[in-house]
């Protein structure tokens, strides 16, 4: 399977970067192909401007950057996003990539894209138990799984929370191993 692996973190050597690398290693060992998109490293512009507002859904009517981004996404059968959880949501850079590239006529509305499977490896400082306390976990799952994947007709999707990122290196090593295993079994 061809997978677009999207990393969203300003530091490439961050825990998020290590998790993305571990997922890629496992996926490659399983025989998948990886197209690695580092949003910060590639200096993606997350700001949606007039040319990229939802329009008639024709690819050629979007900006060149969105056209190239969608073609890159659509050249894959799966998308996996790795990012920290900030303010109970994804970083603005990743949200901007979705706002611009996952656009009307491309991934939703009258469209036919190639993405059949999606996953998010989410790194919150809080543990999953902490996220459950105020129903944050349910809200995040609804926003990401239903609001992004299902809305774009990607019904084979999974969210993995790798929480407690502030609990030290030994704890975070488990997350790297989990990411490798997720790639291996993807």
Please explain how this structure is put together.
The protein has 186 residues and is an alpha/beta fold. It has a single domain, classed as 3-Layer(aba) Sandwich (Rossmann fold). The chain contains six helices and five strands, in the order βαβαβαβααβα. A five-stranded parallel sheet has the order 2-1-3-4-5, sandwiched between helices. Strand 3, helix 3 and strand 4 form a beta-alpha-beta unit. The mean pLDDT is 95.
* CATH class identity: Alpha Beta
CATH topology: Rossmann fold
> What structural category do the secondary elements indicate?
alpha/beta
Which parts are unreliable, with pLDDT below 50 for 5 consecutive residues or more?
none
What is the correct CATH architecture? Answer: 3-Layer(aba) Sandwich
The rounded distance between the terminal residues' Cα atoms is 9 Å
Using only C-alpha atoms, the radius of gyration works out to 16 Å
Largest sheet: 5 strands, parallel
What is the overall silhouette? globular
Taken in chain order, the helices and strands follow as: EHEHEHEHHEH
Number of helices: 6
* CATH homologous superfamily heading: Flavodoxin domain
Q: How many strand units?
A: 5
Can you give the mean pLDDT? Answer: 95
Describe the strand arrangement of the main beta sheet, using strand numbers: 2-1-3-4-5
Amount of helix: 25-40%
């Amino acid at each position: 399977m061809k997978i677009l692996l999207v990393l969203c973190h300003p530091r490439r050597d961050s825990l998020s970067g290590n998790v993305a690398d571990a997922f890629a290693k496992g996926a490659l060992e399983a025989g998948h192909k990886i197209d690695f998109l580092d949003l910060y490293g590639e200096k993606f512009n997350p700001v949606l401007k007039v040319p990229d507002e939802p329009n008639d859904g024709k690819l050629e009517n979007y900006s060149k950057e969105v056209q190239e981004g969608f073609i890159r996404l659509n050249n894959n059968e799966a998308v996996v996003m790795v990012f920290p959880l900030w303010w109970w949501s994804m970083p603005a850079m990743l949200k901007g990539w979705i706002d611009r590239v996952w656009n009307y006529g491309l991934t939703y509305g009258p469209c036919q894209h190639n993405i059949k499977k999606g996953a998010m490896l989410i790194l919150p400082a809080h543990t999953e138990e902490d996220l459950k306390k105020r129903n944050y976990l349910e809200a995040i799952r609804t926003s990401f799984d239903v609001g992004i994947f299902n809305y774009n007709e990607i019904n084979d999707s999974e969210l993995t929370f790798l929480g407690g990122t502030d609990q030290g290196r030994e704890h975070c090593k488990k997350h790297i191993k989990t990411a490798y295993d997720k790639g291996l079994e993807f």
